[in-house]
Amino acid sequence: xxxxxxxxxxxxxxxxxxxxxxxxxxxxxxxxxxxxxxxxxxxxxxxxxxxxxxxxxxxxxxxxxxxxxxxxxxxxxxxxxxxxxxxxxxxxxxxxxxxxxxxxxxxxxxxxxxxxxxxxxxxxxxxxxxxxxxxxxxxxxxxxxxxxxxxxxxxxxxxxxxxxxxxxxxxxxxxxxxxxxxx
Length: 183
Known about the structure:
Shape: flat
Protein name: DUF177 domain-containing protein
InterPro entries: YceD
Number of domains: 1
Organism: Devosia subaequoris
Helix content: 10-25%
Largest sheet: 5 strands, mixed
Number of strands: 7
Region (Disordered): 153-183
Oligomer: single chain
């Protein structure tokens, strides 16, 4: 994914201005934003990108809960033909202030770590969180890493798959077996 200094769409939330009841964020990317998303993801196109988040304050940080839907087109890893994909992902992410390195925990303080939970909170620096990065990350992780058309494989295209008998080491073994072991 290409790193950008400016967000593709605005989804910045200031923690210090977040109401106690939270706030809703809705994203419906226009054509320009969808082209920028496709470029950032290094895919052919994004035909639809919508998300809805409810952002609520949580222990000095925030919790973003919502849903992302997208239609994207990638190139097949086999034939480079376009492969359409529909994405529907739930989002539940917690952002908490980063611990201060200079301020060590009090002696005897208990620290709760939930070992069953795979999602540790993200740490934030400063008073705002850019949720556009969260939405792009969610899309990137949901995309198929090896898109293919149904029934498509190298065998179906007639491309040799490099069996052991045809590879370079097989040829070396044949040379060695045919007296290529002379010193």
